[in-house]
Amino acid sequence: MQIVVDLNRCEGYAQCVFLAPKVFELHGEEALLYAPAPPAEQAERVRQAAAACPVQAILVGEQAGADTGTGAGADVR
Ligand code: SF4
Fold first, then answer.
1. According to the UniProt entry, where is the signal peptide (predicted)?
2. How confident is the model over 10-44, as pLDDT tens digits?
């Protein structure tokens, strides 16, 4: 799966970090780091995180505009 976080929108509420700590990480007060192509086993947590984000900054799958299907072997930078 693919995700994109609109960092201009993100306010650092860290809901996503609590729900999917392997995918989202907060550095300092407001710098959010995330895995753009999280493994399939994280999909449910990512969806919960996206739903919980107070400012809807997390876009998942097709919404992210770069759905690669299974995401297997996806490029994680
Ligand atoms: S839950 Fe939303 S606003 Fe909060 S850190 Fe995550 S992306 Fe940013």
1. none
2. 998 899 999 999 999 998 877 899 999 999 999 99
Residue 52 falls inside a structural domain: yes
Query: Residue 51: which residues within 8 A CB-CB, separation 6 or more?
Result: none
Give me the number of domains the chain comprises.
1
32 C-beta closer than 6 A to ligand 1:
yes
* Cβ–ligand 1 contact at 14 (below 6 Å): yes
Would you say residue 31 lies in a domain? Answer: yes
CA 40 to centroid of ligand 1, rounded, Å: 21
Residue 71 lies in a domain: no
Q: How far is CA 6 from CA 1, 63, 73, in A?
A: 17, 12, 24
Enclosing domain of residue 26:
3-64
